[in-house]
Amino acid sequence: MNSVFSPFVKSLLVAVLAVSATASASAEDKKPAQPAAPKIDPAKGATLYTDGDAARGLPACVSCHGAGGNSTIVANPKLAGQHEGYLYKQLVNFTTPDRNQPVMTTYAKMLTDEEKHNVAAWLVTQAAKPGAAKNKDTIELGKKIYRGGIAEKNVPACASCHGASGAGIPVQYPRLSGQHQDYTVAQLGLFKAGTRKSLEMAAIAKRMSDEEMKAVADYVAGLK
């Protein structure tokens, strides 16, 4: 009996395996294609930063953020030497409700994902010019908050996330050293108001007074 049905059974198994393989191949074909990793080109980022793109009505970043990312306008952040991953993340955030800002949201939405990567990759290579603390009356308070926090308000030391010298941690925490006082104070205010989304920073900023924000922002400006 085995000799009669053995060829048939073998043929049936071969057929089942063939159908199964075809079905598996079809399932693979239906899987969405994974997006290719962007080909990052800092040179293209430099061109876009310096010249913009007139055809799209995209102004040059340099007009607001200064040559090489060293802004001379205190309301606009210095970007030179900022972490590449952090810069890219912020450009993405500007296109979402997490960081809605009239000027930057408009321009960030005009940039392709590749262009965001390119600009960020170029800015991280630029040398940041140092800043300086200006208010001698609050420098000790700013230093105390940055290095040790405010224990009675449950405000942690800024240095615990941004580093002793303000160098930050790539992607997660930005470099703060040398940043304009006015810009840092403004961002703390946005975190406090919930306009700029960050559960971590919102909780911290809400526990700080305006005077404490100004003191730590001035201290940060002098970090190197």
Overview of the structural elements:
This protein is mainly α. Helices cover 53% and strands 0% of the residues. It folds into two domains: 42-125, Cytochrome Bc1 Complex, Chain D, domain 2 (Orthogonal Bundle); 136-222, Orthogonal Bundle (Cytochrome Bc1 Complex, Chain D, domain 2), CATH 1.10.760.10. The chain is built from eleven helices and no strands. Helix 9 runs antiparallel to helix 11 (210-221).
From the alpha-carbon coordinates, what is the Rg to the nearest angstrom? 27 Å
- Which overall shape is indicated by the principal axes computed on the Cα atoms? globular
Which segments are poorly predicted (pLDDT under 50) over 5 or more consecutive residues? 1-5, 12-19, 23-27
User: What structural category arises from helix and sheet content?
Assistant: mainly alpha
CATH architecture of the largest domain: Orthogonal Bundle
CATH class of the largest domain: Mainly Alpha
Provide the fold topology.
Blueprint: H1 2-30, H2 42-51, H3 62-65, H4 84-93, H5 102-110, H6 113-123, H7 139-148, H8 159-162, H9 181-193, H10 199-205, H11 210-221
